[in-house]
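tmp note - CENP-V/GFA domain-containing protein
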Amino acid sequence: MTITGSCMCGGITYAIEADSYLAALCHCTDCQKVIDPALLPISQRRRKNQKINQNQWTGGAFTSNAVVPRTSFKVTKGKPIEKPESPIHLMQTGTPTTYDVTGASGKINKHFFCSTCGSGLYTELEVMPDNTVVKAGGLDGGEANLRGKIDVEFYVKDRPSYLAAVEGAKQEPMFG
Ligand SMILES: [Zn+2]
Ligand SMILES: [Zn+2]
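out:
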């Protein structure tokens, strides 16, 4: 089946050809951060592989994600553009912008977001080369509910104390 999604302004849409996916919550501190890298000074944006904690993701307590095969995912409106010499690329409307963060593994997590409205869209983790991690909030047609079932929670060591573990979800202290 085709699952579709979009950013808040509608400038970027995407489609996933998959009948099922891994539903994952992530409580890592990167997933909680709020500052949009587009707002950082240019000098900071261009510093390669910088270790900062100001990553534009959700500003929420965690992210909810549909982990899908990378081959099943495609951007259908707005096309990602890569410029390897810079970790942050401000592109025209309708093009996902990417931002690289070095994860706890030492590998790169590449985040794609809309530079117009700021919606986080999806992440490509170097440690998961065969998958795309789609931010569930962007999914259309009620799919953001992740079909009411969470398979796994990552980084539960960083989960806020006011949130309980999801019943039946595998609990990973960090990432797998
Ligand atoms: Zn947008
Ligand atoms: Zn995370």
